[in-house]
């Protein structure tokens, strides 16, 4: 069915399943449910194995990780907001979510500064040993 528009009710069923398991849907889910439902089914299995399925980490912890990682990777705001909503639903406090975001500042800012400093030293010929 790739490239063909899926029947609207089948698409809605796929989207309802995504919303139930993840707690949100994004624009990309609607596009892929319409364009390639077989792929979405396989992708959902991957998501279950790596994200929504409980193993050692509970869903709240996984959502805090999602918020921090997606912020660090500069995901779209609506995608980060979706994970904030699920984190709240799973029992995270606003303060816990904020702290997860604050954890991004040092490694992301620090890494950017380090990379910039290395480029500066290489281009200016700066040698810390004199």
UniProtKB/TrEMBL annotation:
Residues 37-121 form the Carboxymuconolactone decarboxylase-like domain. InterPro entries: AhpD-like, CMD-like. Signal peptide: none annotated. Pfam families: CMD (PF02627). GO terms for molecular function: peroxiredoxin activity. This is Carboxymuconolactone decarboxylase-like domain-containing protein. The lineage of its organism: Eukaryota, Metazoa, Porifera, Demospongiae, Heteroscleromorpha.
